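Teaching assistant's notes for section 4

Start the section by putting this record on the projector. Ask students to predict, before seeing the second block, whether DUF4476 domain-containing protein will look compact or extended. Collect guesses on the board.
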Amino acid sequence: MARILATAFTSIALALLSLSTPALELGDNPLALVGDNGLEAIVAPTADNSQALIKLTGLNHPLDGVVMLAEVEQRDNDGRAYRAEVDGKQRSLVVYAQSYWSPTDYTAYIPGQQEPHAIKADEERSAAINVDELVAEYEQQMGEGRQAGLARFDRAKAVQRQQAALADIDDSASKVCGSPVSTSVDWEALTNDQLNNLNITGYCGQVAAEMEYLCLSDASFKQQVKEISEVSCGFADALNLSRHDQSLVFQTSEDASNQRETINDFLQTL
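Reveal the predicted structure now:
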């Protein structure tokens, strides 16, 4: 009796699981796309073209080999973007856009990498795709939590990435101006949404970038900027820049306009 009840409960559990995770019905035309350095993308749209399974391989990224379920975003001129949640944000992984100058209409975008990758269709590899195996791989990885892990926002990694980009801007300005400058940010004060959706480097790196521009434009400015060794940056309700001894305190705002002009005018009064 106990065995019968256990079997019945197992059957009910499996039935409920199948209802909560309906099987994907893929279309008949999966596509294999290849690029340089071994990069390959598989795009397998669902029968109604509203979603697609995307698998990118040949890249140095945690996304490598993980089958993602992407939403298909329709764009102008029959363009479309295959978007999946990676690191806390919906991101385009593969984009199709008709091009008159490029040898391919497809582009792969790797989260965290600035340069896109041109990829083109490979008929032989496309014909060899087994969609049943692709769905099985997707479901297995879902059970392992692979996609869920990629979807979670990694705050520490986001801060590290922005810090490295700011350091590059500081290094360039220091070399051009002939004196060291370092930009610091109150990272703890920033929300996850700000870190994930704003280019913090673009905001907070603007002071050092403008210092470099002025040093290149006018050699005499190098003498003025020698007195400044640090830029402290944070976000506030309005744009503000002030000097405290050898430091510049820069308060920027997400909606600030004419940021570069304001910084330029201030720096020229040092």
